[in-house]
Amino acid sequence: MAWMDRFRPAWRRSDPAVRMEAVRRETDGGILARVALEDENQRVRIIAVGRLEDTGTLARVAATDASEEVCLAAVERLSDDQILVTLAGKSPSSRVRIAAVGRIRDSEAALYLVKQHDDPQVRCAAVRILNSPATLGEIAHRSPFSETRLAAVRQLKDAETLAAIAIGNQETALRLAAVERLRSVGRSLDRDRTRALSLPLIQTPEDQDPGLLAPHFQALGKMEYPRALEAVARSGENHLVRWEAVSRIKDDAVLADIVGTDASDRVRVAAAQCIGHQEEVAGLATSDTHYRVRIAAA
């Protein structure tokens, strides 16, 4: 023990371990506030923050402490939405800003951050607080930020709003995200829902960079509705998307029709190879214009 420690209370002594133990037992809010704001040891400050009840002191610590870990500990003790919005807007630490957003419960406060904040991570975190289909749909259609629009679609649970985005939105990434979200929340599919699932994939242009088709293939891999798969395989603009859809079709009659009608040799070959009952395509073994189709049908 340092000589001067004999004249100090335990929470002010030179040994951090002694101070930590003292703070764990301390009940005086004023002392806890002093320790949280002034102690030189990060671990001591965190323990003090964990015992503090004063919102003002916690907000000050969260906003000003030099240690990100101490700031995060203070944020976890806060519940005042106004303070949390301020921290989300002004903290220099991205982790603190996102943690503050995660504590917000008021949808209007979250919507303010979605519309006004310049940090995309904060905007997306704020979107995850929202649950109104109308609000999320509006963000998905009108936000100027692509990652915020995508976050809104992924937060939606309302099937009708998702179907509207999947059918009518001009942005491919959003339509695909809506399709995936529909699949996860959907129930039975009516004609409009089937169209919503297939339309974004049908509309993929033929000149789309093949390197950007992975999300389309993933969407097809998760598509559990035969009519939607058939719609893509028959009507898709991009032959690679049609080819991927064909590989997942189980109906021999549909496959045989595609073998006989598709404009792409690659798609027709894939369809012929997928048919389980070869009598469906026996005639193509001698009549198709492409040798690979004839071989696959033989």
Short synopsis of the structure:
The protein is mainly α and 298 residues long.
Task: Write the topology of this structure.
Blueprint: H1 16-25, H2 29-38, H3 42-51, H4 55-64, H5 68-75, H6 81-90, H7 94-103, H8 107-116, H9 120-127, H10 133-142, H11 146-155, H12 159-168, H13 172-185, H14 191-202, H15 214-221, H16 226-235, H17 239-246, H18 252-261, H19 265-274, H20 284-287, H21 291-297
Fold and architecture overview:
This protein is mainly α and 298 residues long. Helix content is 67%, strand content 0%. The protein contains 21 helices and no strands. The longest helix has 14 residues, at 172-185. The radius of gyration is 30 Å and the shape is elongated.
Could you give the order of the helices and strands?
HHHHHHHHHHHHHHHHHHHHH
Poorly predicted runs are 280-288, 290-298
Anisotropy-based shape: elongated
| Largest pleated sheet | none
Q: What proportion strand?
A: under 5%
Mean pLDDT: 84
Distance between the termini: 92 Å
Helix fraction by DSSP (H/I, runs of at least 4): 55-70%
Number of strands: 0
The helix count comes to: 21
Rg from alpha-carbon coordinates = 30 Å
| Helix-strand makeup class | mainly alpha
Provide keyphrases for this structure.
single chain; 298 residues; mainly alpha; 21 helices
